[in-house]
Design goal:
Elements lengths: L6 H9 L23 E6 L7 E2 L8 E3 L2 E4 L3 E6 L1 E2 L2 E2 L8 E6 L18 E5 L3 E6 L7 E6 L13 E2 L3 E4 L11 E4 L3 H13 L24 E2 L5 E2 L2 H9 L17 E6 L3 E2 L9 E6 L5 E5 L9 E6 L5 E6 L4 E6 L5 E6 L4 H4 L8 E6 L6 E5 L4 E7 L5 E8 L16 E2 L5 E6 L4 E6 L7 E7 L4 E6 L5 E6 L4 E6 L24 E6 L4 E2 L3 E2 L23 E6 L4 E6 L4 E7 L4 E8 L5 E7 L4 E6 L12 E7 L11 E3 L5 E7 L19 H4 L2 H4 L12
Parallel strand pairs: 1-5, 4-11, 12-15
Antiparallel strand pairs: 1-2, 3-4, 5-9, 6-7, 8-10, 8-13, 10-11, 13-14, 15-16, 17-19, 17-47, 18-46, 19-20, 21-22, 22-23, 23-24, 25-26, 26-27, 27-28, 29-30, 30-31, 31-32, 33-34, 34-35, 35-36, 37-38, 39-40, 40-41, 42-43, 43-44, 44-45
Length: about 700
């Protein structure tokens, strides 16, 4: 009797799902076919890799924990509330990311704002449907609607991906300008590969496996693509196109950094907290590039800890809980918890009648030492006062809406503060725009501008003199260059001058495409920078000297470097799957390193973006890397899985940005953080060199 493997069985093998035999039983004897099961139930969770999770529900259509195979007419349910019990602590959206281009608008799904509600959609058009959360855009789930009549040339089952697919790149899933492409194309293969890497932790890149080839496992099945063509073996095709290089020994940089680097290893699992509350803080020394400790806070949730900032004296670390509700204050030297503030259910907010769901990024204001965190599940930024003992108290929730032109809920993510404490800018992930807020001018401050950027605006960075700022558009695959609040001067960058007058505060100057030269069908053309692409860009800090903006790109697995003098993309450098976090730290003897972290690989990359200090990035290179997995490192909870994985937030200590670096204390004289910096590092853009503060 012929043995055959279906997509479901092959995917099950690829994902290592328990209970799969890897082989289907023999076809049943002739007789009435059973009625198709036309319902799929996803739980929307906080579990790394399995954020759209088919486990824990009755799902005969399950292929992997994140992919279902269904007949036309199936109803797809997304559960965030089961009988009055919230499945996850965080808010989410369920948003169509990819769909067959001939699918009706009723087969696409999205919500107006972040929520904890249940949702459903009925799918009839054959093809691939991928879903994402716009708050946490690494969350993926998928459904293949399969026409049972599609076969291979030999009569075996082949599974419908769709003739043409559409990728969400605009604000709305119904926008006709969303990107349509052949499923049998370079972009189609990239999309499939990304899905099977993101949704299977066994496919994440593990740098402890030196000498082994990095070959993620994909379904070894035939799929029907553009014009009815059949890709006979999806696994072989994807591996031959993208994978196979051996894991190399990671070399540490030869030139030391100064201080420490703190990394949110957001997907790392620990024994006491389990898979529902992932995340550790990993601390490494920049002077010897060795890990110092891992902090899990086992008695606290610290659910997907995401981003850091430091107090001005570098004594406290502020840590957000992106898929939770809390902000944590950590003793930098010991790793001990000083304070947890529950920004949704705690007494800190109850008396004021305000809430801050899913706090994403955190920064201090340079003139007041107040702490600000973006409320990614709500409509503003939470402001907290720093007390004399280092603890924080909630002050107010600042709306990012322009009262003169309000739009849908803003849901700001990675905001940035101006060097003088007068302004703050936010990328508003839900409303696809950016807000500039001015703290002065009114007793309570005011929104100066709120202007369109691009789809899922996720991160920002301000020039060290606040002259311009940059916003990454995750689904727009671009960087928006925005005019700053000061000075209000003509923009003189190449191709950016607007007539003879200045741009208004917060007005868009231009968009920089991170898919320059990319042909969705065939891949890179000769116009691709360094033969690579960006796409799905995330964090974008500006170098302390103001010369470059650097971004991690998830789609291309690359690092992009933008020259801020011309606002052009000048370099793309290979990174890892899910390249995400970027921040700058001081290099011994002068200059800076850019520290880069990927979500789906367990190393930190050290980028010297200007080794010869000529102000150009043509010699930019990754000078070393540090593996973030080490079982011998001191920790407050035993590491249980996803070792060193999920790195997103990153912060160097001391803080070397203009406006903050001037606040560094002297402490032990030349041995202090301030004392270790050269003159140019203590005043990154020139001017009077301030003494180290007492």
């Amino acid at each position: 009797m012929k043995r055959y493997v279906t997509l479901g069985a092959a995917l099950c093998l690829a994902a290592g799902v328990a209970g799969c035999s890897g082989e289907d039983p023999a076809p049943p004897a002739a007789g009435p076919a059973p009625a198709p099961i036309a319902t799929v139930d996803f739980r929307v969770t906080d579990i790394p890799g399995y954020f759209f999770d088919l486990d824990g529900m009755t799902n005969p259509n399950k292929a992997t924990r994140s992919l279902a195979i269904v007949p036309p007419g199936a109803k797809i349910n997304f559960w965030q509330d089961l009988n009055g019990v919230k499945v996850a602590e965080s808010k989410h959206t369920v948003t169509s990311l990819i769909w067959p281009s001939n699918a009706s608008t009723s087969e696409r799904i999205d919500q107006a704002s972040a929520n904890q509600d249940n949702h459903s959609v009925t799918l009839t058009t054959p093809g691939l449907y991928v879903y994402v959360c716009k708050l946490h855009p690494y969350m993926l789930g998928a459904v293949i609607v399969d026409d049972p009549n599609t076969k291979t040339a030999t009569g075996d089952a082949a599974f419908d991906i769709g003739d043409k697919l559409t990728l969400l790149i605009k604000r709305e899933v119904t926008d006709p300008a969303n990107l349509t492409f052949d499923s049998n194309s370079n972009l189609g293969l990239r999309a499939l590969r990304a899905f099977f890497i993101v949704t299977n932790p066994a496919n994440w890149k593990d740098y402890t496996k030196v000498g082994q080839a990095y070959k993620p496992a994909y379904p070894a099945v035939p799929v029907v693509v553009t014009a009815g063509a059949v890709v006979d073996d999806l696994n072989a095709t994807l591996q031959a196109t993208f994978d196979g290089e051996p894991i190399q020994v990671q070399k540490k940089p030869t030139i030391k950094g100064i201080g420490e680097v703190w990394v949110d290893t957001q997907f790392e699992l620990t024994e006491q907290k389990g898979p529902n509350f992932p995340g550790t803080m990993t601390v490494l020394s920049a002077t010897d590039w060795n890990l110092k400790r891992k902090i899990a806070l086992p008695t606290k949730k610290m659910n997907n800890g995401h981003n850091f900032w430091t107090s001005h004296d570098q004594k406290e670390i502020y840590q957000t809980e992106w898929q939770g509700n809390s902000l944590y204050v950590i003793n930098r030297e010991t790793g001990a918890l000083i304070q947890e503030l529950d920004l949704v259910n705690g007494p800190e907010v109850a008396s004021k009648g305000i809430k801050c769901h899913d706090p994403a990024h955190v920064m201090t204001r340079v003139d007041t030492q107040q702490v600000h965190t973006g409320c990614n599940g709500d409509d503003g930024v939470m402001e907290l006062n720093r007390l004399s003992d280092g603890k924080l108290e909630v002050n107010r929730l600042i709306s990012m809406q322009d009262p003169n032109k309000p739009t849908k809920q803003t849901q700001p993510h990675a905001h940035w503060m101006g060097f003088d404490g007068k302004h703050m800018v936010t990328p508003n992930s839900n409303s696809a725009d950016s807000t500039m807020y001015e703290f002065t001018g009114q007793a309570t401050g005011q929104v100066v501008s709120k202007n369109e950027t691009g789809a899922v605006s996720i991160a920002s960075g301000i020039m060290p003199d606040s002259s311009k700022y940059y916003v990454t558009n995750y689904l727009g695959h671009s960087i928006s260059v925005m005019n700053g609040p000061l000075p209000l001067s003509n923009y003189t960058g190449t191709g950016g001058l607007k007539g003879a007058g200045p741009y208004a505060p917060g007005e868009k100057i231009k968009d920089i495409s991170l898919l320059q030269g990319y042909d969705p069908k065939n891949g890179c053309t000769s116009d691709c920078v360094d033969g690579l692409i960006g796409g799905f860009p995330v964090q974008i800090p500006i170098s302390p000297d103001g010369k470059f903006a650097i971004t991690g790109n998830t789609l291309g697995g690359t690092i992009s470097i933008v020259d801020t003098a011309t606002d052009t993309l000048v370099r793309l450098i290979p990174c890892d799957p899910g390249c995400h976090g970027v921040n700058f730290g001081a290099k011994e003897g002068g200059g800076y390193y850019a520290y880069i972290t990927p979500k789906f690989a367990n190393r930190l990359l050290v980028l010297d973006y200007d080794p010869n200090k000529d102000g150009k990035a043509d010699d930019a290179t990754v000078v070393g890397a540090v593996i973030l997995a080490n079982d011998s490192v001191p920790t407050d909870d035993k590491i249980a899985g996803n070792k060193g994985q999920g790195s997103q937030g990153i912060m160097a200590v001391p803080n070397v940005y203009n406006g903050w670096v001037q606040k560094l204390p002297s402490g032990g004289g030349t041995a202090s953080f301030c004392g270790q910096l050269v003159t140019a590092q203590r005043s990154p853009i020139g001017g009077t060199i301030p003494p180290c503060t007492p």
